[in-house]
Amino acid sequence: MPQVFRRPDSLKEAPFRYCPGCGHSIVHRLIAECIDELGVRERTIGIAPVGCAVFAYDYFNFDVIECAHGRPPAVATALKRLMPDRLVFSYQGDGDLASIGLAEIIHAANRGENLSVIFINNATYGMTGGQMAPTTLEGQKTSTTPQGRDPSLHGHPLRVAEIMATLEGVSFVARTAVDGVRGVKECRRLIRRSFECQLSGKGFSMVEVLSPCPTDWGMTPVESLRWISNRMRSTFRTGIMKDRGVDDWRRG
Amino acid sequence: MGNKLAVTGNQAVAEAMRQINPDVCAAYPITPQTEIMQRFSSFVADGKVETELVTVESEHSAMSACIGASAAGGRVMTATSSQGLALMWEMLYIASGMRLPIVMPLVNRALSAPINIHGDHSDGMGARDSGWIQLYSENAQEAYDNLIQAVRIAEHEEVRLPATVCMDGFIISHSIESMEFLPDDAVRDFIGEFKPLHPLLDVDNPVTYGPLVLPNYYMEFKRAQHEAIGAAKEVTLEVAREFERISGRSYGLFEDYRLDDAELALVLLNSAAGTAKDVVDAYREKGLKVGLLKPRLFRPFPYDEVADALSAAKVIAVLDRADSFGGFGPMYMEIASAMMTKGLRPLMINKIYGLGGRDFMPEHAGAVIEELRETLDTGRVKVPKEYIGVRE
Ligand SMILES: Cc1ncc(C[n+]2csc(CCOP(=O)(O)OP(=O)(O)O)c2C)c(N)n1
Ligand code: SF4
Fold it and tell me: Does residue A207's CB lie within 6 angstroms of at least one atom of ligand 2?
């Protein structure tokens, strides 16, 4: 009988230890599938963030470097410039990328570094137990905004993909959500596009993924998917914000 | 008097912060400090404090916001651990250089790399030279008591310097033990009204904080800082005496445990001292003259008093829960300086233990005491500095 489903080579045989219903596990798998498809596993370097995905190196079956909270874009820049033939991507949460590391990501993007960034927006700091992140929705209750995020005190949800789209150095940026089969398939396509963008030397690309954190949202996995569809998607519009196209990178 | 409850170290510290009720708190979550920040956020949301809570985007910004608020004339607090303190490093020196009495609990945690969330003193020791007053605490009770006293020490008019209160990550921050709280009004009366000194908000008397100072005056600024932190030693004792009157608990510059006639001495900080005291007792029962010194005030370091307390010791083991790579452990260097300056020449050994939260067990303390005994017998130090409880 033909095998129709299997573990991608780019994932180790390690069970995910993320919470049940967590988006990190889904996106890890999608990244691994794309790398398998592109046949670049042997030359991929991933950058693990500080955040729940700090253990990414336990799951990905290729080289991974762990860096300080918020610094993946700077480390990725150096890796890619020294080893331009590698596929280099950073994997970052919204605390890592949009809070403590916002300066790094903006400058890497503005310089047009030839990198891919997978940005997991779960509207909270997952690992430290559900504090407000820059991406937390208005009115959303977190452990540091127990009465809900109040924009007059805590600012507004930060729309990183839209900001990125305004930067000259960015060649591809999109937002998607893993809140259902359609979203998961779209996410896979966009991640692949971002990798192809890098492989064809087009410069900086980023995929923002609206991703569930049932534990810190205090919801069941199913409720959190609905919350993404009904609430997150209205604050964070999904779609491709910028696409300068890719070339057939295999030819060159 | 107080109210006895079973709480975690973090809860104890958060309660102290609630009772202190600072004007401004700017903090960023980091394990194992997070619980302090979260509990404090709830106090703000529930109206239990009047604090302006600033949810910043990093620790660098947290300390920057504290600096602004303190210079403006407020009583200001934050809390952090490990990488958070490391990211604050630039601002730590600015806070002390501007003489701002910010008070900060530090839940001690190891530094990256490799990344590790458990307790050791690398973070606090890394900030040793930053001009902050540092108090260390063995347990939740001490962390609570030290934090309340730190407000008075930092804000004392002869000091006016930032202060940090350390306790061990997880071992204390996340363990539940019973301790005694003071009534809210006792804490309020003890710390008193905040008296701003040259606040920026006093617009009728404009001042500049942190101006450019070139070689012509920079050194005078630093000399003033040196004197101010030196003054913190007497102030710490004065504040402790007053604190004893409201709490019945007495504090000094350090704790000397069975040290009077001790020929063998151990020196160690925080929670491990609790473990080692039991071992000291066991050896005392066997007739060995062994004692222990647990520093409380680490900056300014009370060299004179420490040397006096250790003057009977012929052999001393200093146990450091942090390393100064390529040198001795930071506590060893202090003890050696204290002894040398007084012309005392005990044989000394340095043990590095418990990094990244590695357990410190009674048998480790026992083995060190055995080695001290051998050192005393042979009159010779076998290995000056060594890691213990580690795989080869
Ligand atoms: C300098 C520094 N500050 C704070 C922390 C504590 N910390 C660890 S993970 C984290 C938040 C991570 O949130 P996010 O990036 O959204 O990732 P998630 O866990 O939600 O996947 C924080 C604040 C740290 N490790 N280093
Ligand atoms: S806390 Fe949230 S982000 Fe972290 S593993 Fe659990 S569900 Fe995922």
Answer: no
